[in-house]
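JOB MANIFEST
job_type = single_chain_structure
chain_count = 1
residues = 401
[input]
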Amino acid sequence: MIRPAERARVVVIGAGQAGLSVAWHLQRAGLVAGHDLVVLDRAPGTGGAWQFRWDALRLGIAHRVHDLPGMHEMGLRFDDADQSRPAREVVAEYYRRFEEHHDLRVRRPVGVTAVRHGDGPGSDTLLVETRDEHGVAGTIRAEAVVNASGTWGTPFVPWVPGRDAFRGRQLDTTGYRDAREFAGQDVVVVGGGTSAIGFLLELDGIARSTRWFTRRPVVWSDDPALATGAAVAAVADQDRAARAGRTLPSIVSGTGLPVSPRIRRGLARGLLEAEPMFTRLDGDGVLTADSEHVHADAVIWATGFRADLRHLAPLRLRTEAGGVVVEDGRSTAEPRLFLAGYGPQASTIGANRAGRRIARQVLAVLADDDVAHTHTDTDTAGAAAAADDDAAPDGQSAAGA
């Protein structure tokens, strides 16, 4: 079944932090949600990627979630949220209240299958192809598209020899729900970020054993100023990579890991001792760099994510270096396409700041279109008048008659 084609001035793909931030700024500028502005989200509920996070994750032990623009006028702040509740519940509730209060009219669950260049009349537009939960396909012709699809849909799992031979359970971060699933098991955790650390701390006392492997040495940071400086440098690295069209580097590799009281207790117990990446897997475990065989019932790949840009493939944006050239949130190859929450904007505070900048650029594109349409309408009217002049008798124009 195919839904009738639609038109919109702007389509925002994704209703997580970045998408909602851009949508809020565009709405404040006068775009009408559900008409001029269409926000699509493939997830079943509010909260962006947070709605899929594991049960034990709490706001107090996770990355800080920065408030959306427009939340304070509602009396909402994540710093005041109940930290005893699962983070996914809190974020989903706050985002739901935000969407309802500002009447953003997010359509969900609606997946975007492709974004293409427009063809024929109105070819200076982009076509957004969609499919809803019932399999109904649709097309929206838009003057600008903001891609805010995030990374949760594309977890990265590196290839390691023997991975297909392992008979135990393998899962990435998106598949982790509760440490109790691994009660009494030997668990290998791979990855040098906060998710891996969270899993190790939660598995302590529940799993029979845990071993932690990382591709690069873990750098701990006790100095908040040093961590902040490293974070700024890491974001700058992301920005340079995005501008050059290279694959985006890891943020954690550039920032190090801050030592919270909870992490400090784990270090004191010897729980957080990272080992160099193992060389291979076999049927029931892994072989370490020192040739030790470590038995494993499960391997958790907490090895990060890649930007989810698969639906943008028809635009042919990928460079030979494997990335997409993006400058200040805008595609250089397709100036009607904006990427919110990409690269240096990936943090929650970065997504908020970028939302305002991207909205301004989108509005500039719309203004240019309005000027072009005005000129086209004027030219058409002049041509029609000239044609009438040719047909009018006695040298009188049709207007004069």
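[summary]
The CA atoms of residues 144 and 197 lie 40 Å apart.
The radius of gyration is 26 Å.
exit_status = 0
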